[in-house]
Specification:
Helix content: 55-70%
Strand content: under 5%
Shape: flat
Largest sheet: none
Order of helices and strands: HHHH
Length: 129
């Protein structure tokens, strides 16, 4: 069997996509170098409340209740991605893809339950003074 010739349009689109991505990154880097101040200012290291300089004593530390929501998000996102991949391949390999998807869902259900349960228990995240 002889190797199939490479389509020039496909090669051109791949190279063009890489050049556009590299150019966007380069422009962003150049803009960040041009815009940012050269010196380190004391105000840069201070804490801010909603973008304003601090006044008075701080109320308290940030509650880590959102950690549980992060776990939920990091569990649901792969499920949606795998579901999308399943829908792309279900017409050719129905049984194999379905079994793989069910196994993946069963693996991701425990972290999802843990994240939802942790998010409900607010006492875990309260700051004790």
């Amino acid at each position: 069997m002889s190797p199939q010739p490479i389509d020039v349009n496909i090669l051109f689109s791949i190279v063009l996509t890489m050049l556009v991505g590299f150019s966007v990154c380069l422009v962003g880097y150049i803009l960040s170098v041009v815009i940012t101040p050269r010196k380190h200012y004391r105000m840069k290291k201070e804490r801010f409340e909603a973008g304003n300089p601090p006044k008075g004593k701080a109320r308290g530390w940030f509650m880590m209740q959102y950690y549980a929501y992060l776990i939920v998000f990091l569990t649901l996102e792969p499920i949606l991605i795998y579901l999308f991949l399943l829908l792309m391949e279900i017409h050719t390999l129905f049984q194999e893809t379905s079994i793989l998807f069910i196994i993946l869902i069963l693996m991701l259900i425990p972290p999802l339950i843990f994240g939802l349960d942790s998010a409900r228990r607010v006492k875990l995240w309260l700051v004790k003074n």
